[in-house]
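Escalation from tier 1.

The customer reports that the assembly of two entities below gives different C-alpha coordinates on two consecutive runs. Tier 1 could not reproduce it. I'm attaching the input and our single run for tier 2 to review.
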Amino acid sequence: MAKDTKKEKGLLIVYTGDGKGKTTAALGMVVRAVGYDWKVCIIQFIKGSWKYGEMDGIKKLAPNVELNVVGEGFVGIIDDKKTIEVHRAAARKAFEMVLAKMSSDNYELMILDELNVALNLGLITREELEEVIKKKPEKLHLVITGRGAIKWLIDQADLVTEMKEIKHPYRKGIPAQKGVDF
Amino acid sequence: MAKDTKKEKGLLIVYTGDGKGKTTAALGMVVRAVGYDWKVCIIQFIKGSWKYGEMDGIKKLAPNVELNVVGEGFVGIIDDKKTIEVHRAAARKAFEMVLAKMSSDNYELMILDELNVALNLGLITREELEEVIKKKPEKLHLVITGRGAIKWLIDQADLVTEMKEIKHPYRKGIPAQKGVDF
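Tier 1 run:
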Protein backbone atom coordinates (compact mmCIF):
# COMPACT_ATOMS: atom_id res chain seq x y z
CA MET A 1 0.00 0.00 0.00
CA ALA A 2 1.28 3.48 -0.80
CA LYS A 3 2.01 5.52 2.25
CA ASP A 4 -1.08 7.41 3.21
CA THR A 5 0.43 10.68 4.31
CA LYS A 6 -1.24 12.40 7.18
CA LYS A 7 -2.42 15.88 6.33
CA GLU A 8 -4.64 16.92 9.20
CA LYS A 9 -3.55 18.66 12.35
CA GLY A 10 -2.36 16.13 14.89
CA LEU A 11 -4.27 15.94 18.15
CA LEU A 12 -3.04 15.85 21.70
CA ILE A 13 -4.82 12.92 23.30
CA VAL A 14 -4.80 11.96 26.97
CA TYR A 15 -5.95 8.63 28.43
CA THR A 16 -6.04 8.93 32.18
CA GLY A 17 -8.00 7.66 35.21
CA ASP A 18 -7.73 4.68 37.54
CA GLY A 19 -9.46 2.12 35.29
CA LYS A 20 -8.00 -0.40 32.90
CA GLY A 21 -7.74 0.41 29.21
CA LYS A 22 -5.43 3.43 28.99
CA THR A 23 -2.33 1.76 27.57
CA THR A 24 -4.61 -0.76 25.83
CA ALA A 25 -6.41 2.03 23.99
CA ALA A 26 -3.03 3.47 22.96
CA LEU A 27 -2.13 0.03 21.60
CA GLY A 28 -5.40 0.01 19.67
CA MET A 29 -4.47 3.35 18.11
CA VAL A 30 -1.26 1.70 16.91
CA VAL A 31 -3.30 -0.92 15.03
CA ARG A 32 -5.35 1.81 13.40
CA ALA A 33 -2.25 3.84 12.46
CA VAL A 34 -0.53 0.80 10.98
CA GLY A 35 -3.62 0.26 8.85
CA TYR A 36 -2.90 3.66 7.31
CA ASP A 37 0.76 2.76 6.90
CA TRP A 38 1.74 5.52 9.33
CA LYS A 39 4.98 5.47 11.24
CA VAL A 40 4.52 5.04 14.96
CA CYS A 41 6.90 5.72 17.80
CA ILE A 42 6.17 4.43 21.31
CA ILE A 43 8.25 5.57 24.25
CA GLN A 44 7.64 3.96 27.60
CA PHE A 45 8.37 6.07 30.62
CA ILE A 46 7.77 3.26 33.08
CA LYS A 47 9.27 -0.06 32.04
CA GLY A 48 7.08 -3.00 32.88
CA SER A 49 3.84 -1.31 31.95
CA TRP A 50 3.91 -3.25 28.69
CA LYS A 51 4.77 -6.89 28.99
CA TYR A 52 5.46 -9.79 26.69
CA GLY A 53 2.03 -9.99 25.08
CA GLU A 54 2.10 -6.39 23.96
CA MET A 55 5.69 -6.49 22.83
CA ASP A 56 5.33 -9.64 20.75
CA GLY A 57 2.07 -8.36 19.30
CA ILE A 58 3.67 -5.02 18.41
CA LYS A 59 6.50 -6.84 16.65
CA LYS A 60 3.94 -8.32 14.27
CA LEU A 61 3.05 -4.76 13.30
CA ALA A 62 6.67 -3.97 12.40
CA PRO A 63 8.41 -2.40 10.57
CA ASN A 64 6.16 0.62 10.99
CA VAL A 65 6.14 0.59 14.75
CA GLU A 66 9.11 1.43 16.89
CA LEU A 67 8.90 0.51 20.57
CA ASN A 68 11.40 2.17 22.92
CA VAL A 69 11.47 0.85 26.44
CA VAL A 70 13.36 3.46 28.36
CA GLY A 71 11.97 3.41 31.88
CA GLU A 72 13.58 1.39 34.63
CA GLY A 73 10.64 -0.59 35.93
CA PHE A 74 8.00 0.33 38.44
CA VAL A 75 9.12 2.74 41.10
CA GLY A 76 8.92 2.05 44.79
CA ILE A 77 7.24 -1.33 44.66
CA ILE A 78 8.50 -4.23 46.71
CA ASP A 79 11.08 -5.58 44.28
CA ASP A 80 12.32 -2.13 43.24
CA LYS A 81 15.94 -2.14 44.32
CA LYS A 82 16.92 0.86 42.21
CA THR A 83 17.52 4.28 43.66
CA ILE A 84 15.33 7.19 42.61
CA GLU A 85 18.36 8.60 40.78
CA VAL A 86 18.40 5.57 38.47
CA HIS A 87 14.71 6.12 37.68
CA ARG A 88 15.29 9.85 37.12
CA ALA A 89 18.16 9.17 34.76
CA ALA A 90 16.01 6.73 32.76
CA ALA A 91 13.12 9.21 32.57
CA ARG A 92 15.52 11.94 31.44
CA LYS A 93 16.77 9.62 28.72
CA ALA A 94 13.15 8.98 27.65
CA PHE A 95 12.47 12.73 27.66
CA GLU A 96 15.48 13.42 25.46
CA MET A 97 14.43 10.64 23.12
CA VAL A 98 10.97 12.23 22.78
CA LEU A 99 12.51 15.54 21.73
CA ALA A 100 14.89 13.86 19.28
CA LYS A 101 12.12 11.72 17.72
CA MET A 102 9.85 14.75 17.48
CA SER A 103 12.48 16.84 15.76
CA SER A 104 12.99 14.06 13.18
CA ASP A 105 9.33 14.60 12.22
CA ASN A 106 9.32 11.02 11.03
CA TYR A 107 6.12 9.82 12.73
CA GLU A 108 2.39 10.30 12.43
CA LEU A 109 1.62 8.85 15.88
CA MET A 110 3.67 9.00 19.05
CA ILE A 111 2.67 7.38 22.32
CA LEU A 112 4.27 8.49 25.57
CA ASP A 113 3.20 5.65 27.77
CA GLU A 114 2.83 6.32 31.50
CA LEU A 115 4.27 9.81 31.17
CA ASN A 116 1.65 11.04 33.65
CA VAL A 117 2.95 8.57 36.22
CA ALA A 118 6.56 9.57 35.59
CA LEU A 119 5.55 13.20 36.16
CA ASN A 120 3.66 12.46 39.36
CA LEU A 121 6.63 10.49 40.69
CA GLY A 122 8.88 13.48 40.02
CA LEU A 123 10.90 11.55 37.42
CA ILE A 124 10.26 14.29 34.91
CA THR A 125 9.32 17.88 35.64
CA ARG A 126 6.32 19.97 34.65
CA GLU A 127 8.71 22.14 32.59
CA GLU A 128 9.85 19.09 30.65
CA LEU A 129 6.24 18.15 29.92
CA GLU A 130 5.58 21.70 28.75
CA GLU A 131 8.59 21.49 26.44
CA VAL A 132 7.27 18.23 24.94
CA ILE A 133 3.84 19.76 24.23
CA LYS A 134 5.42 22.92 22.81
CA LYS A 135 7.64 20.95 20.46
CA LYS A 136 4.93 18.61 19.16
CA PRO A 137 5.08 18.73 15.36
CA GLU A 138 1.89 20.19 13.87
CA LYS A 139 0.79 16.96 12.18
CA LEU A 140 1.75 14.48 14.90
CA HIS A 141 -0.97 12.76 16.93
CA LEU A 142 0.52 12.66 20.42
CA VAL A 143 -0.99 10.28 22.97
CA ILE A 144 -0.10 10.54 26.65
CA THR A 145 -1.22 7.81 29.02
CA GLY A 146 -1.18 7.24 32.75
CA ARG A 147 -3.38 7.91 35.73
CA GLY A 148 -3.35 11.34 37.34
CA ALA A 149 -3.01 13.61 34.30
CA ILE A 150 -2.43 17.13 35.61
CA LYS A 151 -4.97 19.87 34.96
CA TRP A 152 -2.56 21.82 32.76
CA LEU A 153 -2.21 18.86 30.39
CA ILE A 154 -5.97 18.35 30.25
CA ASP A 155 -6.37 22.04 29.42
CA GLN A 156 -3.88 21.67 26.55
CA ALA A 157 -5.38 18.45 25.17
CA ASP A 158 -7.85 18.08 22.32
CA LEU A 159 -9.26 14.75 23.50
CA VAL A 160 -9.29 13.43 27.04
CA THR A 161 -10.87 10.20 28.22
CA GLU A 162 -10.91 9.16 31.84
CA MET A 163 -10.89 5.40 32.19
CA LYS A 164 -12.95 4.94 35.31
CA GLU A 165 -12.74 1.72 37.25
CA ILE A 166 -16.24 0.39 37.79
CA LYS A 167 -15.19 -3.15 38.61
CA HIS A 168 -11.80 -4.82 38.77
CA PRO A 169 -11.14 -8.57 38.99
CA TYR A 170 -8.54 -8.11 41.74
CA ARG A 171 -11.35 -7.08 44.03
CA LYS A 172 -13.05 -10.40 43.37
CA GLY A 173 -9.80 -12.19 44.26
CA ILE A 174 -8.98 -13.04 40.64
CA PRO A 175 -5.22 -12.69 40.02
CA ALA A 176 -3.69 -10.73 37.14
CA GLN A 177 -4.61 -12.40 33.87
CA LYS A 178 -2.49 -13.05 30.84
CA GLY A 179 -3.95 -11.28 27.83
CA VAL A 180 -5.75 -8.80 30.06
CA ASP A 181 -3.18 -7.46 32.50
CA PHE A 182 -0.03 -8.41 30.65
CA MET B 1 6.35 -19.52 18.27
CA ALA B 2 4.56 -22.46 19.81
CA LYS B 3 0.96 -21.75 20.61
CA ASP B 4 0.78 -20.50 24.14
CA THR B 5 -2.41 -22.19 25.28
CA LYS B 6 -4.57 -20.25 27.61
CA LYS B 7 -5.17 -22.06 30.87
CA GLU B 8 -6.71 -19.48 33.18
CA LYS B 9 -10.38 -18.73 33.55
CA GLY B 10 -11.49 -16.28 30.91
CA LEU B 11 -12.87 -12.98 32.09
CA LEU B 12 -15.96 -11.09 31.08
CA ILE B 13 -14.80 -7.58 30.32
CA VAL B 14 -16.99 -4.57 29.57
CA TYR B 15 -15.83 -1.27 28.09
CA THR B 16 -18.65 1.23 28.31
CA GLY B 17 -19.26 4.95 28.82
CA ASP B 18 -19.56 7.97 26.52
CA GLY B 19 -15.83 8.61 26.07
CA LYS B 20 -13.51 7.52 23.31
CA GLY B 21 -11.37 4.42 23.73
CA LYS B 22 -13.83 1.54 24.12
CA THR B 23 -13.38 -0.14 20.76
CA THR B 24 -9.79 1.11 20.69
CA ALA B 25 -9.03 -0.68 23.96
CA ALA B 26 -10.59 -3.85 22.52
CA LEU B 27 -8.28 -3.47 19.50
CA GLY B 28 -5.35 -3.13 21.90
CA MET B 29 -6.36 -6.40 23.55
CA VAL B 30 -6.15 -8.01 20.12
CA VAL B 31 -2.51 -6.91 19.80
CA ARG B 32 -1.74 -8.42 23.18
CA ALA B 33 -3.54 -11.68 22.36
CA VAL B 34 -1.74 -12.01 19.04
CA GLY B 35 1.51 -11.61 20.95
CA TYR B 36 0.56 -14.79 22.80
CA ASP B 37 -0.39 -16.47 19.53
CA TRP B 38 -3.99 -16.72 20.69
CA LYS B 39 -6.88 -17.04 18.29
CA VAL B 40 -9.13 -14.00 18.27
CA CYS B 41 -12.65 -13.61 16.96
CA ILE B 42 -14.19 -10.17 16.54
CA ILE B 43 -17.87 -9.78 15.78
CA GLN B 44 -19.20 -6.34 15.05
CA PHE B 45 -22.80 -5.71 15.93
CA ILE B 46 -22.87 -2.25 14.39
CA LYS B 47 -21.13 -2.04 11.03
CA GLY B 48 -19.21 1.16 10.58
CA SER B 49 -17.88 1.31 14.11
CA TRP B 50 -14.56 0.03 12.75
CA LYS B 51 -13.33 1.66 9.62
CA TYR B 52 -10.53 1.22 7.16
CA GLY B 53 -7.66 1.99 9.52
CA GLU B 54 -8.68 -0.69 11.99
CA MET B 55 -9.51 -3.22 9.34
CA ASP B 56 -6.24 -2.85 7.46
CA GLY B 57 -4.31 -2.85 10.74
CA ILE B 58 -6.12 -5.99 11.89
CA LYS B 59 -5.23 -7.71 8.62
CA LYS B 60 -1.56 -7.29 9.49
CA LEU B 61 -2.27 -9.35 12.59
CA ALA B 62 -3.72 -12.20 10.53
CA PRO B 63 -4.00 -15.16 10.38
CA ASN B 64 -4.77 -15.29 14.09
CA VAL B 65 -7.47 -12.68 14.02
CA GLU B 66 -10.85 -13.15 12.43
CA LEU B 67 -12.95 -10.05 11.88
CA ASN B 68 -16.64 -10.54 11.19
CA VAL B 69 -18.56 -7.47 10.16
CA VAL B 70 -22.16 -8.46 10.58
CA GLY B 71 -24.05 -5.31 11.50
CA GLU B 72 -25.77 -3.19 8.89
CA GLY B 73 -24.33 0.22 9.61
CA PHE B 74 -25.40 2.82 12.12
CA VAL B 75 -29.06 2.83 12.92
CA GLY B 76 -31.28 5.83 12.49
CA ILE B 77 -28.69 8.32 11.34
CA ILE B 78 -29.30 10.58 8.36
CA ASP B 79 -28.04 8.26 5.63
CA ASP B 80 -29.62 5.16 7.15
CA LYS B 81 -32.11 4.05 4.52
CA LYS B 82 -32.56 0.56 5.93
CA THR B 83 -35.60 -0.51 7.85
CA ILE B 84 -35.29 -1.59 11.46
CA GLU B 85 -36.10 -5.14 10.29
CA VAL B 86 -32.92 -5.19 8.20
CA HIS B 87 -30.91 -4.12 11.24
CA ARG B 88 -32.63 -6.71 13.41
CA ALA B 89 -31.92 -9.46 10.91
CA ALA B 90 -28.23 -8.48 10.83
CA ALA B 91 -28.01 -8.42 14.63
CA ARG B 92 -29.67 -11.84 14.80
CA LYS B 93 -27.11 -13.15 12.35
CA ALA B 94 -24.35 -11.71 14.53
CA PHE B 95 -25.94 -13.29 17.62
CA GLU B 96 -26.10 -16.69 15.95
CA MET B 97 -22.51 -16.33 14.82
CA VAL B 98 -21.46 -15.63 18.42
CA LEU B 99 -23.09 -18.85 19.62
CA ALA B 100 -21.55 -20.87 16.78
CA LYS B 101 -18.06 -19.43 17.33
CA MET B 102 -18.37 -20.02 21.07
CA SER B 103 -19.40 -23.61 20.63
CA SER B 104 -16.35 -24.23 18.40
CA ASP B 105 -14.23 -23.28 21.44
CA ASN B 106 -11.52 -22.25 18.99
CA TYR B 107 -10.68 -18.82 20.45
CA GLU B 108 -8.98 -17.38 23.47
CA LEU B 109 -10.38 -13.89 22.97
CA MET B 110 -13.70 -12.80 21.55
CA ILE B 111 -14.78 -9.21 21.10
CA LEU B 112 -18.44 -8.35 20.65
CA ASP B 113 -18.10 -4.83 19.42
CA GLU B 114 -20.97 -2.41 20.09
CA LEU B 115 -23.19 -5.16 21.46
CA ASN B 116 -24.37 -2.76 24.18
CA VAL B 117 -25.59 -0.38 21.48
CA ALA B 118 -27.33 -3.18 19.56
CA LEU B 119 -29.11 -4.14 22.80
CA ASN B 120 -30.17 -0.58 23.59
CA LEU B 121 -31.50 -0.17 20.06
CA GLY B 122 -33.58 -3.31 20.51
CA LEU B 123 -31.67 -5.17 17.77
CA ILE B 124 -30.94 -7.98 20.17
CA THR B 125 -32.84 -8.85 23.31
CA ARG B 126 -31.82 -9.07 26.94
CA GLU B 127 -32.52 -12.83 26.75
CA GLU B 128 -30.10 -13.18 23.84
CA LEU B 129 -27.42 -11.36 25.81
CA GLU B 130 -28.05 -13.66 28.78
CA GLU B 131 -27.67 -16.67 26.50
CA VAL B 132 -24.33 -15.35 25.22
CA ILE B 133 -22.99 -14.87 28.74
CA LYS B 134 -24.29 -18.28 29.83
CA LYS B 135 -22.61 -20.02 26.90
CA LYS B 136 -19.23 -18.32 27.25
CA PRO B 137 -16.63 -21.11 27.30
CA GLU B 138 -14.80 -21.24 30.63
CA LYS B 139 -11.43 -20.18 29.24
CA LEU B 140 -12.58 -17.53 26.79
CA HIS B 141 -11.92 -13.86 27.53
CA LEU B 142 -15.08 -12.14 26.33
CA VAL B 143 -15.03 -8.39 25.73
CA ILE B 144 -18.23 -6.44 25.21
CA THR B 145 -18.04 -2.83 24.09
CA GLY B 146 -20.46 0.02 23.61
CA ARG B 147 -21.95 2.84 25.61
CA GLY B 148 -24.85 2.16 27.92
CA ALA B 149 -23.97 -1.29 29.30
CA ILE B 150 -26.97 -2.50 31.28
CA LYS B 151 -26.70 -3.08 35.03
CA TRP B 152 -27.22 -6.83 34.66
CA LEU B 153 -24.17 -7.10 32.40
CA ILE B 154 -22.05 -5.02 34.78
CA ASP B 155 -23.12 -7.30 37.62
CA GLN B 156 -22.02 -10.34 35.62
CA ALA B 157 -18.70 -8.87 34.50
CA ASP B 158 -15.29 -9.38 36.08
CA LEU B 159 -13.82 -6.15 34.79
CA VAL B 160 -15.68 -3.00 33.83
CA THR B 161 -14.16 0.28 32.74
CA GLU B 162 -16.24 3.32 32.00
CA MET B 163 -14.59 5.51 29.38
CA LYS B 164 -15.66 8.94 30.52
CA GLU B 165 -15.53 11.84 28.11
CA ILE B 166 -13.61 14.68 29.71
CA LYS B 167 -12.89 16.54 26.50
CA HIS B 168 -13.72 15.81 22.89
CA PRO B 169 -12.30 17.57 19.84
CA TYR B 170 -15.75 17.90 18.22
CA ARG B 171 -16.58 20.35 20.95
CA LYS B 172 -13.63 22.48 19.89
CA GLY B 173 -14.89 22.37 16.30
CA ILE B 174 -12.22 19.91 15.17
CA PRO B 175 -13.71 17.40 12.70
CA ALA B 176 -13.35 13.60 12.99
CA GLN B 177 -9.71 12.67 12.56
CA LYS B 178 -8.19 9.84 10.61
CA GLY B 179 -6.22 7.60 12.95
CA VAL B 180 -8.26 8.77 15.92
CA ASP B 181 -11.90 8.47 14.94
CA PHE B 182 -11.54 6.07 12.04
